[in-house]
């Protein structure tokens, strides 16, 4: 086949089943999951799998083949695009660094989601204050009661009175 060989040697595949197997092991380890936990998560994603199958995919000789449904389930479980799952693992990061990156990514998404919730709540309260201007003091008192810290309550109240952000 044209493009399959270069200089008499094999052309390394950018996307391959072997890469998926390596990424499955890496992504499982980064998350601190056992092979049993990964098998359970894949099964819950709709593709029946057991711990032995995960181990054979990661370590078997010969390695257990991965079908398309399994690859898609792994991608769902790891929250990765299939293309990323099929790509070679990144070089230059040890397991601890990968875990820290994973933690940062998760914290980023949690923060983004929390900021979105805050924005919607702040806009709603700001609209309430606009319709009922005399409620501003009571809203600050409720913030203080719930937060327990005057400075934080004042910051949130000012944020609300300013109409929030992204407005």
UniProtKB/TrEMBL annotation:
Q: Where are the transmembrane segments?
A: none
Location of the HTH cro/C1-type domain: 24-85
Supply the Gene3D superfamilies for this chain: lambda repressor-like DNA-binding domains
CDD domains xref list = HTH_XRE (cd00093)
Q: Which domain of life is it from?
A: Bacteria
Report the GO molecular function annotations. Answer: DNA binding
PROSITE patterns xref list: HTH_CROC1
In Swiss-Prot or TrEMBL terms, this protein is called: XRE family transcriptional regulator
